[in-house]
Known about the structure:
- The chain is α+β, with helices and mostly antiparallel strands.
- The protein has a domain at 7-67.
- The chain is built from 3 helices and 2 strands; from the N terminus they run H-E-H-E-H.
Amino acid sequence: LGCGCGLVTLSLARWGCREVTGADDSPVALALAAASCAEAKVSCEKVRWRRLDWRDLDACARLREELGPWDAVVSADCVLAAPPSGPM
């Protein structure tokens, strides 16, 4: 969730995870993560990058169908900035 530059995703791949998927809603973050993957010489066969707005439950369901079940979901420093909802 929110892979950003790909540090956690790439670390999981290097630590022996069979397959790792980094997801982010930012095309800039995904491009940076893919470049980091190439720079770190991590096998592109075990790492996948997907654009995903994790607030979109239908998109999350489609990604799960595409990739199959997960053993774990990892998130680091994820913050969702919600727009103001009015007076409390």
